[in-house]
Amino acid sequence: MLQMDLGMRSFVVLVALISILETGNSTDCKNEPRCQISRVYGMRAADCSDRKFKYFPQCIRSDIEVIDLAMNRIRKLRFADLERYRNLKALYLQDNALAKLEEDTFDGLDDLTGLDISGASHVKIPPNIFRLPSLQTLYLSQQMNSNIVEVLETTKPITCPLVHLDISYSEIERLPEMGLLPTLVKYNVSGNNLFELGVKHFSGLCGLRHLITENVSLSLTKPCECWNTNRWLISKGFKDPPFDCQLKDNLCEEVPFNSSDKENYEKCSILLGEIARRSLLKKVLLPLATVMLVILLCIFCYFRRRRRYLEQPSYRIPAEEESMNSLPLKKIENS
């Protein structure tokens, strides 16, 4: 009897604790600033911008795909903050003065294609960002005293399919050597004061088509490296020199490009060709093969049914039945 009383008391205490926790959660959600839910390009989106959030919201529906938290007061972001939002495709955190991102903050966000953490004060970029399987657009502008160059170089090879990278106005003194990154098409390095610039910073970017260099100031120990870099980029498809070297062309000697830079570009081109073939296979050939298979199955089913129909035994009336059926007619004719 005593054991039953203890068990009953434990059960009551457990129920009370659950009730307290649920009440606390509901109170938190009541006090949490409200986000406006809508649809953006067919995706569920939450506009939480400029609402004085001090922490990542936890009361938005868990199947949300886009969250805009720009211009808030969030200073720290952890894996636990994003754990319930596994369907995120775009996350905007610019102008939050982020000071801490844990190493595994973005782990598990396999569908994330766009991330903006511009305007962070002294945040260290976690390397895992560059391993997200779907990340295509990354804004890292206005990252004061950050580790952008170091993390981009130490994470090589970058495995995320990065298409657009923005590291503008981040007080970096040299561009990162990112290795082979054939998917990168748009690269913004505006507003930085560069003390080093060379072909090596672009030799692994064979897919690059848009290089934004507005307000870039150059304080190079070898000024002709700027001219040589422009010459390389023009040879790879750029119409105008991207960098303002502020020196006349005839002051620099035209030297052959480094063999390692040529080798990097060739390796990058091979990778880009493989990516293009896989993309063609995924977008065109696989759907076409599926359609052809469906058509062949329909044709097969049609001829199979037709064959069965033609092979059905035709029913013939026996001669005795034919004679019996014809007797009444003869009698009628005789009458």
Task: Give structural attributes.
335 residues; alpha/beta; 9-stranded mixed β-sheet; two-stranded parallel sheet; disordered C terminus
Explain this structure to me?
By secondary structure, the chain is an alpha/beta fold. The protein has helices at 2-31, 79-82, 148-154, 224-235, 259-310, 319-334; strands at 36-40, 43-47, 66-68, 76-77, 90-92, 100-101, 114-116, 137-139, 164-166, 186-188, 193-194, 210-212, 217-218. The chain has six helices and 13 strands. It has a nine-stranded mixed β-sheet, with no helix packed on it. A two-stranded parallel sheet has the order 4-6. A two-stranded parallel sheet has the order 11-13. It is flat, with a radius of gyration of 34 Å. The termini are far apart. Mean pLDDT is 85; it is low at 15-27 and 329-335.
Q: Brief description of this entry?
A:
With about 325 residues, this protein is α/β, with parallel strands linked by helices.
Topology:
Blueprint: H1 2-31, E1 36-40, E2 43-47, E3 66-68, E4 76-77, H2 79-82, E5 90-92, E6 100-101, E7 114-116, E8 137-139, H3 148-154, E9 164-166, E10 186-188, E11 193-194, E12 210-212, E13 217-218, H4 224-235, H5 259-310, H6 319-334
Parallel strand pairs: 2-3, 3-5, 4-6, 5-7, 7-8, 8-9, 9-10, 10-12, 11-13
Antiparallel strand pairs: 1-2
The low-pLDDT segments are: 15-27, 329-335
Q: What is the global morphology?
A: flat
> How helix-rich are the residues, as a percent range?
25-40%
Radius of gyration: 34 Å
Structural class category = alpha/beta
- What is the H-and-E element order? HEEEEHEEEEHEEEEEHHH
Quaternary organisation of the protein chains: single chain
* Main sheet attributes: strand count, strand direction, barrel closure: 9 strands, mixed
Number of helices: 6
Number of strands: 13
Q: What's the overall average pLDDT, rounded?
A: 85
Strand composition percent: 5-15%
For the record, give the distance between the C-alpha atoms at the N and C termini, rounded to a whole number. 107 Å
Strand order of the largest sheet: 1-2-3-5-7-8-9-10-12
